[in-house]
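Example record

One chain of 331 residues, shown exactly as stored in the release files.
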Amino acid sequence: MVKIGDISLGEFPLLLAPMEDVSDPPFRAVCKAGGADLMYTEFISSEGLIRQAAKSRQKLDIFEYERPIGIQLFGGDIGNMVGSAEIAASVNPDLIDINYGCPVKAVACRGAGAALLQDIPKMVKMTESIVKSTRLPVTVKTRLGWDDRTKNITEVAERLQDIGIKALTIHGRTRVQMYKGEADWTLIGEVKNNPRIQIPIFGNGDIDSPQKAVEYKNRYGVDGIMIGRAVIGAPWVFREIKHYMQTGVLLPPPDIAERVRVCREHVEFSIRWKGDRLGVFEMRRHYANYFRSLPDFKPYRTRLVEANTAGEVYSILDEIGEVFSQATALA
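Predicted structure tokens for this chain:
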């Protein structure tokens, strides 16, 4: 049984990665239904919370059906990070996660995210300050190092464990790699198999199939896997991986009826959280992902993106279900 503090996550938990402009409550709702064991909010700026910026505050919205749910914070100022952790704790999440892995320039150039991989003493001091400031379990997500010459994740893992974090997620790339090239899980496995390490170690990077999930579980011995990009438009990935782990048999891919149903549920959650207008507008980034690989889908995608009301979206989704179900039956 994998545990983060007192939170039980099962034998081999599957985690939803915190993704900016993706991992909002509507998306998390369909991922929870799809089998995610632990989810995180989009990463939240500590400075934004301290300034009470509306966008940052809205990202604190969490719901009972999401539990266990973690709030992920990023920032470069220790005082602001401690203050933002206290604000985050006030909405009663299950844990606080610190982002030391985001590679994007707008974050790293402000001394936040993966930038802390260049200043391990500050990373340790920041983490220890947050651990001491909250009753909640504190976890960390980071990368192998800043670049190929500074893959210091083994040292980082030991030092962060020693000052009290309860779990560590490691993305198998350096900051310089961004999201390019193949993720290297070798060092993730070394951290997990380090006899000094007693906390759960979760691996992240390039898990895009049940077969790869099982292969990496067995090869590297991690306690669980965090999945990001592969879940976009496919929240049933968690269910598929679990089924394959338990049976060794691949589930058939979701048919058009299920894709339409899950997309519609996503739209419904989006509208409930953001209201009719914004809920429909912000779903536009998701439609192509739900129906990728469908032949001749572009005209429907255009209509979905141009739709302004929930009624229009639902009507188009119903049409997609009918047309492509018939096309599959005739094939």
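Notes: DSSP finds 15 helices and eleven strands in the chain.
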